[in-house]
Amino acid sequence: MMTSATLAAGLAAVAPAAGGGEGFEPPTLADFFPEAFLLAGTPFAINRIMMVRLIMTAALVLFFGIGAARAKVVPGRFQNVCEMLLGFARVNIAEEIIGERRAKPYVPIITTIFLGVLFLNISGVIPGLNIAATSVIGMPIVFAVVAYVVFFYAGIKSHGLGGFLRSSVLPAGVPKALWILIIPIEFLSNLIMRPVTLTIRLLANMVSGHFLLALCYAATSALFFHAAAALKGLGVVTFGVALAFVLFEVFVATLQAYIFALLTAVYIGSSLDSH
């Protein structure tokens, strides 16, 4: 149901252009920078991307709020889904990577990152929204900075500032003759590039997913409404490809949320293991 509705919403988005006689309208970067429709000209301006972020944040809070309000000793299906998501983040990400005892203080933030990225990613295939809330760099940066701060906090709490910084840039057992080479590499790798790579990985996957879906929608619309009769049948092919990409994008959205939370746990674990 969701996939067919998503396709219909995508076609509806490009159909007006097709009907206007312009034919195939490929997606552009303008999709990610819409005009503000509320509080324009202020730091609190709301455009389509911000609206999607607010909607998905509210959906996340409502989803687990309903689950908590209806919690029973014998869980129903909805409660099972809520507990499965929470349990996956706690057991399969935090505890598996960091360790059951050491992970306990960091389970809430890792779970929040996993669920937050998941819900904001999945908006790319929801009818009427049709764009991932993480496909503009602001949200990936926010999640990456949060992960980076927790990584620093865990290391400093466990080893002190000096001990944490030393172990981050100078692995144990490295000969002094190699310090001049190893220290800059480890500094860039561990203290600079981690939030950058977290941000770029998430952003690139969500942007590319939007482009693929939008291209399929636009091609289907153009073939159905503008192509010669002999070519209209190709619209069925692009429609099928769009359906496959919707399912693939759901998989990618989930996978990227898992990878982001997993790497956050890996970074926290490495800071705790520093010595």
UniProtKB/TrEMBL annotation:
GO terms for cellular component: plasma membrane; proton-transporting ATP synthase complex
A Pfam family reported for this protein in Swiss-Prot or TrEMBL: ATP-synt_A
Signal sequence annotation: none
CDD domains: ATP-synt_Fo_a_6 (cd00310)
GO molecular function: hydrolase activity; proton-transporting ATP synthase activity, rotational mechanism
UniProt key word Manganese: no
Cellular localisation: Cell membrane; Membrane
Transmembrane domains' residue ranges: 44-69, 106-126, 132-156, 177-196, 202-225, 237-268
Keywords assigned by UniProt, alphabetized: ATP synthesis, Cell membrane, CF(0), Hydrogen ion transport, Hydrolase, Ion transport, Membrane, Transmembrane, Transmembrane helix, Transport
UniProt topology in membrane: Multi-pass membrane protein
Domain of life: Bacteria
Main localization, broad class: membrane
InterPro entries assigned: ATP_synth_F0_asu (IPR000568), ATP_synth_F0_asu_bact/mt (IPR045083), F0_ATP_A_sf (IPR035908)
Function: Key component of the proton channel; it plays a direct role in the translocation of protons across the membrane.
Family: Belongs to the ATPase A chain family.
Protein name listed in UniProt: ATP synthase subunit a
Taxonomic source organism: Actinomyces massiliensis F0489
